[in-house]
Design brief:
Elements: H1 2-10, H2 28-36, H3 44-52, H4 55-61, H5 63-70, E1 79-82, E2 91-95, E3 101-105, E4 112-115, H6 116-133, H7 138-160, H8 164-169, E5 172-173, H9 174-180, H10 188-202, H11 205-212, E6 213-216, E7 219-222, E8 229-231, H12 232-235, H13 239-259, H14 262-268, E9 272-279, E10 290-296, E11 303-311, H15 328-339, E12 348-355, E13 358-366, H16 381-402, H17 405-412, H18 417-446
Antiparallel strand pairs: 1-4, 2-3, 3-5, 6-7, 8-9, 9-10, 10-11, 11-13, 12-13
């Protein structure tokens, strides 16, 4: 508690309202172009096209520009395992190993030990930006942002009073989520929520087989949907190159197997490789190498769909201490296990030499295993406030697992000083985000970068 109070004296909570971009602020478009250097070149127009759709879509893909800006804001010196990209669309439902739907953070590409307040500010700003895109009034947006950050503060103070094991066991299952939204779930909204739950439960391996695979030459094969889904055999015209890519992906699977616990290897060994394809994912991740891997067990009704996603340096790393893990895939996996209450049993990492001419790190997990995110664009203000509060609670629980929850709670205090400051920051940064989005549109319009829309 003394540590938290000392941090409050050194960095008053009101200072978290500060955001003043200086003359030396890096060009956000140049930062995005720098990320493109290590990605698949032909996929970058898809990334820019997706980011150009709206200010919120831009914000989702602009984790690096915001990390660069956050590096110049006040820090308390209290460190947690940070998500690095804690916007509201990176929270959602997924299936636990016990086959229950749970609500948690579900994207960890940027995770790294770092300031807890950076995650809070990114979440708060995402709510402000999404609220503007949805046409909410200023009063409604302020209520949403204040509610989410206040939920974080209250949750952290609650976790400070709990035992360590109670914090680690705390989670939001679907029953808790339904209870949280009980007052808002009436009439048509209740029916929509039930449909979304059914949709999430259908996103298992059988659902993925029906969605992404068909029968060709009597065998299940991944269906091509270029440029978003491209089977390995279709990636290049030269059969030798295709064979080389397939060989590299087989090497990924072999090395990944070794990273699993022995009992998980026994499980994986009961499946045989059937097909592989490149898949475009997300907004900010477009251009990273991501692969769908279809395996079958006893027959075509026993599928296992894995996703192998390239892991590179986190956007936080230029501004913080480097990861203790040389393998970026391991950084992602360890961060995910630290922040989530339960994680995919097939979560693992691998490094493969000579992939596309260089060494590359990947992490693997099941594809779409109950994963479902809220439809931000269709939320009403009251619903977004409740959702933001749930995200705030979830983020506090994730931070409490790895950070000094007592010190953070003491810093936050019992009053609204912190959420008031972060709400002001969110407003200012949302203004900056709109200017940055316009800069991207101008770069597209001038021909500086190429964007492909509708994908």
């Amino acid at each position: 508690m003394a540590r938290g109070r000392a941090a409050r004296a050194e960095v008053p909570r009101s200072r978290h309202a500060e955001f003043t971009p200086g003359r030396g602020r890096p060009d956000p478009v140049a930062l995005l172009e720098g990320q493109a250097a290590s990605r698949v070149p032909e996929l970058m127009p898809i990334r820019y096209g997706r980011m150009a759709v709206s200010a919120f879509a831009y914000f989702r893909g602009a984790a690096l520009p915001m990390a660069s800006d956050l590096a110049d804001t006040p820090r308390t010196g209290l460190v947690v395992q940070a998500c690095g990209d804690a916007h509201l669309a990176n929270f959602g439902l997924y299936a636990s190993p016990e086959r229950h739907l749970v609500f948690d953070i579900n994207d960890f590409d940027e995770t790294l030990p770092g300031p807890w307040e950076w995650d809070v500010k990114r979440l708060a700003t995402s709510l402000e930006v999404a609220g503007r895109d949805n046409g909410y009034s200023g009063k409604e947006r302020r209520s949403i942002v204040l509610g989410a950050v206040a939920a974080y503060r209250r949750a952290m103070r609650d976790f400070a009073d709990r035992t360590t094991l109670e914090v680690w066991y705390a989670h939001a299952d679907i029953a808790a989520v339904q209870a949280y939204f009980a007052q808002d779930l009436v009439g048509a909204r209740r029916k929509r929520f039930s449909r979304n739950l059914a949709k999430a439960r259908s996103r298992d391996n059988l659902g993925a087989l029906a969605r992404f695979a068909g029968v060709r030459d009597g065998r299940p094969r991944i269906i091509a949907d270029p440029p978003l889904i491209v089977p390995v055999a279709d990636l290049v015209a030269d059969g030798t190159d295709a064979a080389e890519i397939e060989q590299q992906l087989r090497a990924v699977l072999r090395a990944y197997r070794i990273s699993l616990e022995p009992e998980r290897r026994v499980l994986l060994d009961q499946y045989r490789l059937v097909d592989m394809a490149r898949k475009v994912v997300g907004v900010g991740s477009v251009g990273t190498r991501s692969w769908m891997i279809l395996l079958l067990g006893d027959d075509e009704h026993d599928p296992l769909f894995l996703q192998a996603k390239e892991a590179g340096p986190t956007v936080l790393e230029p501004f913080l201490e480097p990861s203790e893990y040389q393998n970026a895939g391991r950084r992602v996996v360890v961060g995910q296990r630290l922040m989530q209450t339960v994680s995919d049993i097939f979560l693992g990492w691998v490094r493969v030499e000579g992939f596309d001419g260089r060494s590359r790190d990947f992490y693997l997990r099941q594809l779409r295993d109950g994963k479902f995110s809220a439809e931000v664009e269709t939320m009403i203000p009251k619903g977004m406030r409740a959702y933001g509060e749930l995200c705030g609670w979830t983020l506090a629980r994730a931070h409490a697992r790895s950070g000094d929850r007592v010190a953070i709670a003491a810093y936050l205090g019992s009053g609204p000083a912190f959420e008031t400051a972060v709400r002001e920051f969110a407003e200012q940064y949302a203004d900056q985000n709109e200017r940055d989005h316009q800069a991207l549109l101008d770069a597209i319009g001038s021909g500086r970068i190429t964007a492909e829309t509708g994908l």
